[in-house]
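call fold(seq) -> tokens
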Amino acid sequence: MQPGKLWGLRRLADDYGRFAMLALDQRPPVEKLLAERRQRSDVSAADLAAFKAVLIHNLAPAASAVLVDPVVTYSGLVDDLDPHRGLLVSLDDAAFAADGLHDRGRVIDDWSVERIKRLGADGVKFLAWHRPDGNLEAQSHQQRLVEEIGDQCRHFDIPFVLELLLTPHSDGRLDAPLEHTELVIESVSVFSDPAFGIDLFQLQLPVLPADLSGAEVSDQAIDAFRRLDLAADRPWVQMSTGVGFDVFRQALKLACEAGASGFLGGRSIWWDAGRQFPNLWRMNTSLRTEGLNRIRELTEVGNEFAVPWMEKARAIGPPEVDSFGGEAWGESGLPLSH
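ret:
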């Protein structure tokens, strides 16, 4: 593993190699929520900044790292970010959803891996929608794009975190439970190829939320998480994908028992508090109680069951203690200009 990638992953995790990361890069869902709360058709930049600032101030101190978007959250709230916490920055443009092109992602205009590296982030995150049984042209587009970002992350020696989601059906129908599991695992298997350069996977549930809402979890669900771990073949974290908190906590336990190294959670932690907006006093109160309790409960699950990422990094390779990125680095150890 390249030294910059190694250092970045260490920064994103806690002292024991477990991830307890807070996701604050959500754009369309938050914009929709704030517009509804304001009873308007759009949302102002000031409201977005105020909303994200309240989340950062209350929840970031309890996380090992924070995931932010570069346009609103980083650019507008850089002084609010704690330098003692890891910083993960999104590169994916959320505007694709408005076009209905979930299966053809793109990079945020005027942003790049190099720019994220230069601002001092510890990792680059990209969201890729993918569907193994879907449009072949769309699959090729996503794979080429992910591979290009992976190459850039190697070149600039920064960790590449891939958020992988199943592309939804255009007609809104849902996959059957067993079909969902197989498609999620197959997608992960595709991108676990070393050619894509993924250092850390951010993965959705391999089962439907309903499968985790009962008092007991089926052997089939437990097996799905184990198969997901085998498919990833490198460090991975469980994402919340907006499910209810109780379901996310249950999913995190199963994921960590199967081999995950922690979590990257967002709406499952803070969405209920966010519905208090624009009453920032009530939002603060909810985050300081329920929000903090949630992230602490998830961290406790990770502390007990998560596998340190260093133990899962065998597919990435050992630290390159005598290497500084090959041809991309000069004799001084500083990056060459290109």
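Strands lie at 19-23, 65-68, 86-90, 123-130, 160-166, 200-203, 236-239, 262-265.
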